[in-house]
Amino acid sequence: MMKIDLVTQAAQRIASLKGHFVHHERFVPLAEGFSILAEKRLVDIQSGRTSEAQGLALSGHSGAGKSAAITHLLAMESQRLAEHGHGDTTIVSLRVPSPATLKFVGQMLLRALGYPIGADRHAWYIWDLVQHHLRERRVLFVHLDEAQDLASRGTKHELDSVTSMLKTLMTDPEWPVGIILSGTNELEDILNHDYQLARRMKTVRFESLSPAAYGDEILDLLDSYCERAGLEPEDDVLELSHGERVVHAAANQFGIAIVLILDAIEDAYLQGQKTLNRHNFIRSYYRRTSCDAEFNPFVVPDFMRIDARQVFSRENRT
Ligand SMILES: Nc1ncnc2c1ncn2[C@@H]1O[C@H](COP(=O)(O)OP(=O)(O)OP(=O)(O)O)[C@@H](O)[C@H]1O
Ligand SMILES: [Mg+2]
């Protein structure tokens, strides 16, 4: 087979593997917390009552799998809503824009609602429209990803006005909207500075994995990905220490561990292999980071000393 066929085929097979969502145990509290919120809101709508909507905040380090989890959750919920005769309701998801001023956040939200508007309007006008369209489109939830960015740019004053607007949306007497925030751990600081917002939120944190506690579990994950991928895992990737290496190389983040496994599988495809071995991990880690072998956690025995968030590490920098 020509090399180019191998590349195309690998890309197709990896794309299909990427489409698979892993239901890790950490997903359970998130999904449960969310379905309770959704149910309460639907009961209120059906009975013609309104009470304040509640929200959900998900925090975790970069690569923990927050965006992937919320995207999956919202897709499942949309489908469930449609199946239960609530196909007219909507869930809106967007990334917090930069700079996260009151006006710009409102503008982006309007755009996500399908009503782009020029920047020459006052913030109050934009948010008036936002509230109007949230009602019109029967929006149950608004999800803001990278919510820590609400605090990173702009002044404290802007942060206060955005959070108070979010509270306004949740407490709207006519059509309250649940707010879902996901972001890195600085999101926790935002909530800790605004108790009125925090008390209306359920919180979930995706903890980092420790190599000692999760090495085993990551091996199970690797095994199941190999099965899906149609590759036989060799003994060297089924050793407990290999599981620990994957966790460490992933900077202890669940999502990155999956990405590392998929990268290694891709390498095996590109080599035309029928099995997966440690060399696939070594090569794909190098491709990802351009780090010398001394800084490759799949090579060195004392891999715990390596800072897995560094790229381009060299023994002798010249
Ligand atoms: N449950 C999962 N099943 C399958 N793949 C996953 C899962 N969780 C994460 N991933 C993979 O890990 C990658 C990183 O996850 P994600 O983008 O969700 O991290 P994040 O926590 O949002 O990070 P950041 O804070 O940098 O945005 C995703 O692109 C996805 O491919
Ligand atoms: Mg993300």
TrEMBL record:
Q: Which SUPFAM superfamilies match?
A: P-loop containing nucleoside triphosphate hydrolases (SSF52540)
The record, for Pfam families, names: TniB
Name this polypeptide is given? Uncharacterized protein
* Organism of provenance: Pseudosulfitobacter pseudonitzschiae
